[in-house]
Design a protein that fits this description.
heterodimer, A: mainly beta, four-stranded antiparallel sheet, 11 strands, 0% helix, globular, B: mainly beta, six-stranded mixed sheet, five-stranded antiparallel sheet
């Protein structure tokens, strides 16, 4: 888990503002994932990428965008189209042997 | 669609007793089943996993069993301790999409 970093730890967004959450891994994992977790709830998949320059929508992609220009990095942008973005955002990466590890998370709050 | 069902959603056990959490999955081709523990405000941490070529795996007080025919797997925690209080997620690798699907979680309370 120490090989996956997310920043910032806390983020505040104003109405109509786009914000970008950073996720970096030095584990040489091919696959990376973004999840959203609301209080007391499970993990919902936003986007995932199995290889550089390619990514797929998860279950709740509307209002979010991603890029995968480098193997180590998978940033998530929360756009103004996402009307209720307050949540805990978790990035994860997966090894070819199928073990998936999570980053420490970013807690996003809308002001 | 592909999914993982997890039960119960909440579980309270007396300290020292055993806890069992059960999951079922839909994709018969799934061959990897991890379990994660999430403490309040923290990231989910992998605690144990099992692959379809074995029926049971044990690591100290934690064990996982897998029944591929019935498509269900279970987490067993023996001699529970206060630090076992957390939310536990089961998951299964869906080979069609090569992604891991999570259950909705079980909140485990260890009572003193």
């Amino acid at each position: 888990d120490g090989g996956i970093t997310q920043s910032p730890k806390y983020l505040f967004r104003k109405e109509g503002q786009n914000v970008t959450l950073s996720c970096e891994q030095n584990l040489n994992h091919d696959a990376m994932y973004w999840y959203r977790q609301d209080p007391g709830q499970g993990l919902r998949l936003i986007y995932y990428s199995q290889i550089v320059n390619d990514f797929q929508k998860g279950d709740i992609a509307e209002g979010y965008s991603v890029s995968r220009e480098k193997k180590e990095s998978f940033p998530l942008t929360v756009t103004s189209a996402q009307k209720n973005p307050t949540a805990f955002y978790l990035c994860a990466s997966r090894h070819a042997s199928d073990t998936q590890y999570f980053g420490p998370g970013t807690r996003l709050t809308v002001l | 669609g592909e999914n993982v069902e997890q039960h119960p959603s909440t579980l309270s056990v007396q300290e020292g007793d055993s806890a069992v959490i059960k999951c079922t999955y839909s994709d018969s081709a799934s061959n990897y089943f991890p379990w994660y523990k999430q403490e309040l405000g923290k990231r989910p941490q992998l605690i144990i996993d099992i692959r379809s070529n074995v029926g049971e795996k044990k690591d100290q007080r934690i064990a996982v069993t897998l029944n591929k025919t019935a498509k269900h797997f279970s987490l067993h925690i023996t001699e529970t301790q206060p630090e076992d209080s957390a939310v536990y997620f089961c998951a299964a690798l869906m080979n069609r999409d090569d992604k891991i699907i999570f259950g909705k979680g079980t909140r485990l309370h260890i009572l003193p």
